[in-house]
Amino acid sequence: MRLKHCVSKYAAIFAVILSAGCLTHGVEKSSSPVHKYAAEVAKLAAAPAPAPGGILMVGSSIFRKWTNCVQDLAPLPVRNRAFGGSRTEDQLYFFDQIVPSSRAALVVWYCGSNDINGKKTPEAIRQNTKEWVERTRTALPQARILLVSVIRAPQKRTAGLLPKVDEVNKDLAKLAGSFPGVIYVDVNPALEAADGAPVAECYVSDNLHLTDEAYRRMTLVLRPVMEKEWKAASASKP
Prior knowledge:
Layout: H1 2-30, H2 38-46, E1 55-59, H3 61-64, H4 69-72, E2 78-80, H5 88-93, H6 95-98, E3 106-110, H7 113-117, H8 122-139, E4 144-148, H9 154-158, H10 162-177, E5 182-185, H11 212-235
Parallel strand pairs: 1-2, 1-3, 3-4, 4-5
């Protein structure tokens, strides 16, 4: 009887420990880390919705740091919702908060540079971008999409990443050619000398992000294409 009592006692103790472990595991499993860009995206989503039929700029810090884009591209109705140092996977993660509510007629994309720095393959970048294009076409059926080339910045040259940049840009051009209403624009010639070397005055000290001069040059390339595609999208509305 004494042996039976001891066995029952230890079985009960084991059951309590096991139950506590399951509860703890359940708490850990149900909790999830907050995405590092969640607060930034929440602010973008909480801002007043733009008027329908405008131009939405999305992507990473090359666009996010273009703080004068509204003035530079005026009178085009631009709204900038680029965030952080985002990668293509982040654009997919926050797609529903960023794109559909813009009600844009033209969406301008710059992303992939941080993927390359993060050792993502060109194939992975292409697949994510393709998924983003498909989701945008579903959410905004009348909108046109402008894919902007990844910049061949000095930082990419120093890190030996230019071949990947060039491959990604080739993929973007092919992707644009496979969808109606999707256009690819290469801004790199505007930021390079005749021999293909980067123009030093276009880059800040990190040799990655852009100066006002670089944005001025980009404006000269992007504005006419944006204006043309925005007007075409606006004219095609039912």
